[in-house]
């Protein structure tokens, strides 16, 4: 079954690079923009290039003639030759209706922060606004000189223009998806924290937070960059900046310039949030879902790799506590949203791109995969998946293929049952002691249609079983009556189970 979201892809058009020249002022919330787009054609005879751009006024496009309607900028061109490259320039202006907020921050200072997730780049940047077409990009921002400007990639230039304005130029040389482009303009305090694994680490917080910002961000960031680099593979980008930002909560993982909502940071401990956004630099950013149906490849991965970082930095008990909490949240969510699945089927309504089950059950799917194929095969597969798709796009099928190769196991049934099915399996089980036969007897009844590998511990000895029919019995030799029989002692199964000692013999 081919599953794909409904974005209108242009198979003959490949965006390679975007250059955005944007001017901002303190006297108006309008931006003046000029975008240059480098395109490579993948076929002969393409006579139209379409960019997303919603709510802005276009004043000129060259070369070509254009028609701007319903959030799409259609550029009619002379027919292409295969592998030909051309550059288009779009001049436009307007007040962004989304994607870029021009607001007052918590100190009542004027600030400008973008948030393109998931498809709001189009409200201020003419782009192919979908993750499938990655491109490099650069921003040349003119803004009042009192501000500092953060964006993706490396700082190329800062020039005071002598008229109260400053030009700041950032360039990202690694291709990324549209939502990962970002700018922030504010009165920042910028702290250069040296490098981690050769990657410059920076902290950008409001000037009022200059004392606390570096302390809050830098220790966890260093540890997370080190851990993910060693576990998965090298970091993909030219720096990592943690940025305090206004207008939203939580964090957004923009490539090399992570934004954190100003409300929560600097007050609460935030290892989980920092690790989540940094994990996204590997999964979501460097390896990106080619289709919104597979958004779990971003959020499920960032959630599980945060737990792996917690296991690494705080120990196994903290990891298990995180898994248990995540599992309870899944069961709670499934009570009120029984139809939620980890993968979408042909997503068209972008308001529904995320639901919380994608994070938690996606993470649990990775956890169960690791338990099934073992730590070594799991890490080998993860490293190979990263090498193969770094700075490219991947699908669930691509991930499945790599994990099958790494483990030597067929895993189609596994991904299908955990990603494409709503709800979680239920299980009712009981155990009893047959003194005459010297056996522990187990009677299990699970949701039909699931294949459930499970662990049972009998006085601390762990046995593996697999429930493949609705109802099954198992027996284990035991010389003496067991003191304790536990189901899933290692927190490895996503099942809602009741498991008790039975009074009677089965
Ligand atoms: Zn996330």
How would you explain this protein's 3D organization?
By secondary structure, the protein is α+β, with helices and mostly antiparallel strands. The chain folds into four domains: 175 residues, tricorn interacting facor f3 domain (Immunoglobulin-like), CATH 2.60.40; 96 residues, Neutral Protease, domain 2 (Orthogonal Bundle); 132 residues, Neutral Protease, domain 2 (Orthogonal Bundle), CATH 1.10.390; 76 residues, Sandwich (Immunoglobulin-like), CATH 2.60.40.1840. 25% of the residues lie in helices and 36% in strands. It has eight helices and 28 strands. The strands form seven sheets. The protein has a seven-stranded mixed beta sheet, with no helix packed on it. It has a five-stranded mixed beta sheet with strand order 15-16-17-19-18, with helices on one face. The protein has a four-stranded antiparallel beta sheet with strand order 8-9-14-11, with no helix packed on it. Strand 8 and strand 9 form a beta hairpin. It is elongated, with a radius of gyration of 26 Å. The chain starts with 12 loop residues before the first strand and ends in a 5-residue tail after the last strand.
